[in-house]
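Pilot study result, target chain (77 residues):
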Amino acid sequence: KKSVKFTFSANYGTSGKSMTQYKFVPRGKKASKYKWKTANSVTYKTRNKKVRLYVRYIDKSGNITTKKTNGFYVTKK
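Predicted structure:
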């Protein structure tokens, strides 16, 4: 089986880390329809389905920074 492991990290500055969240959103779907999951890493195993990964970093002051990928998919190769 092919898979991709993502590990999330950020510099939270003096506020410190509160949590890191992520969600996978299939191509053509609205990100707002998908729930955030809390974790510092995740392994993605679904094949031949293009998705975009969203990650948000939340510090102890409540500041939120959200990043996303351009989109990817895992093949059998």
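One observation from the pilot: The radius of gyration is 14 Å. A full batch analysis is planned for the follow-on phase.
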